[in-house]
Fold this sequence. Notes:
The structure holds two protein chains of two kinds.
Chain A: H1 2-22, H2 28-42, H3 44-59, H4 61-64, H5 66-79, H6 82-111, H7 116-119
Chain B: H1 4-13, H2 16-35, H3 44-59, H4 63-75, H5 77-83, H6 85-90, H7 92-97, H8 99-123, H9 128-134, H10 141-151, H11 155-179, H12 185-207, H13 209-237
Amino acid sequence: MIQALTLILLCQLAGETLTRGLGLPVPGPVLGMGLMLALLAASERVAEAVVPVGQGILRHLSLLFVPAGVGVVGHVDRLGAEAAWLMVAIVISTVLAIAAGALAFKAVARLTGTDEARDG
Amino acid sequence: MADFAEIWSYLARGPLLWLTLTLVAYVVADALSAWAGRAPLANPVLIAVILLGLTLWGTGTPYAVYFEGAQFVHFLLGPATVALAVPLYLQGARVRRAILPVLAGLTVGSVVAVVSALWIARALGVAPETLAALAPKSTTAPVAIGIAQSLGGSPTLAAVLVLITGMVGAVVATPLLNALRVRDWRARGLATGVAAHGIGTARAFQVHPQAGAFAGIGMGLNAILTALLAPMVLRAFL
């Protein structure tokens, strides 16, 4: 487990260093994710160690949102009149994005014959 | 024996108290969510945030003091982003087979999420620096915080908007996709992960394992796409 955590942190550190150093528009941890994907694909030993630890971290992804979420409480009154407009924008935009994304997936799956309903 | 106020003021100075209470609130919230049959509204993040918010308010604790303890949990958002490589790796074959539909759903979902939010918010008169925090709202928190910071938006506000978006997505996804008659679990999961990141993904896993896997993929790929897309779209809106 300690090797897996070390690799995960090394990927994040490498990602942060590269994005800062090269001025890339991608956040460091995202680049770290790409590096980790390359490592997983390259080595069975890495995959064996990292997969269970990675799944363990992601199983409690909800927990990681809590500290930032508690910040909502302090921010809501500072937003004032904008809070209601932001809620309107978020609700409509989220409904549109889910609908458009799912329908686009479905349409292209049918076009390319990768429809799972057809696969059985 | 020291009195309660003395013990409290001692504990409130270190990170142990608020770290522990963060975990306690989450454990309680998760149990309540399970007890409610994982109903969309009984979201564990929402419940834990309310419990902790009430505790901070009741004890007059500033957020900065709370965060000194909670930062250890918050820090894990970075490693969790790196760990998103794991579901991508495990579902590699299935994703490669569905690569075109995945890219279509990802691109359309991601563009609609950013453009529609900025368009509606600007039309309603929301300030430009708030738009910078709103642009990455559909991507996972650590990435959204990074994007918002690089665009000159408030990282805390970005995290708040991400959290609200995730909650909204987790609540609306099931009834919305039923109404649209989308039965493909891959399509349902991917769209939810793209629009509502980790909280949407956690919801998708509650509904169907395949939906959950594709939601994780949608969240992971949208982290990259939004990082590239949000600055361009925001520039067009300012």
